[in-house]
Design goal:
221 residues; alpha+beta; Arc Repressor Mutant, subunit A; SH3 type barrels; two-stranded antiparallel sheet; globular
Length: 221
């Protein structure tokens, strides 16, 4: 059972978890930039989280979540991604609309509600953007994937996730009927700007930029 942390504390815990995935340690400035907060406010919250045993913090070397901090983060992320799945699957929200709504719903702390939601949805392993949903024990299912930009020519693959989940990019992909589960293959890579031409089954080929291709993750078939 997750202790009754404040909304602000939960937001910090989740943000640190995401930042530490790509860094050995997280800096105060990186967290301040991520949360759009002042460094002084960041330092105060880090001290609170450390006092609660959620953080291993060294003012000069950065910080990471402790074992308990990671457990708390996975519970929060589980809530968030289950709500995203519910909003898309049951309420027909588009995938670019769900993040902000799920940001509010993730702070509903009833474990019974979240577990019943998980069961109602059929225990999904991935959210609408392809991110893994932690199970009731905090375990995450991983999938083999690589950026679309690295897919060999004429090799069929299926889209498994989108790394950049800005509403602008998701709207762009939706407008071209590119979603999780879409099958495609790369027909050409243009050296001038590294854009690529992709082909879909029974659909016209389109060209996308290198930036978009890097954000789309695929699993070769």
């Amino acid at each position: 059972m997750l202790p009754n942390y404040s909304v602000s504390e939960e937001n910090y815990i989740k943000s640190i978890y995401h930042l530490q995935q790509s860094n050995e340690s997280v800096s105060t400035n990186a967290l301040a930039d991520h949360l759009k907060a002042k460094p002084a406010s960041i330092t105060d919250m880090l001290k609170k989280l450390q006092a609660k045993g959620l953080l291993n913090y060294n003012p000069y070397k950065g910080f990471r979540l402790s074992r308990d901090g990671n457990k708390a983060a996975l519970i929060i992320i589980r809530r968030h991604r289950l709500w995203e799945y519910f909003l898309v699957d049951q309420l027909r929200f588009s995938w670019e609309e769900v993040h902000e709504v799920a940001e509010e719903l993730e702070h509903v702390r009833s474990k019974k509600l979240v577990d019943k939601l998980d069961a109602f949805l059929g225990f999904p392993k991935f959210d609408p953007h392809g991110d893994p949903i932690p199970d009731n024990n905090g375990k995450i299912s991983m999938q083999q994937q690589l950026p679309l930009s690295n897919l060999p020519l004429n090799k069929q693959a299926v889209i498994t996730s989108v790394q950049n989940q800005s509403s602008e990019l998701l709207s762009f992909l939706s407008s071209r009927n590119i979603i999780i589960g879409t099958k495609l293959e790369v027909k050409r890579k243009l050296p001038f700007d590294n854009s690529i031409e992709i082909k879909f089954k029974n659909r016209q080929s389109i060209s996308i930029s290198e930036q978009v291709a890097n954000a789309i993750q695929v699993n070769p078939l």
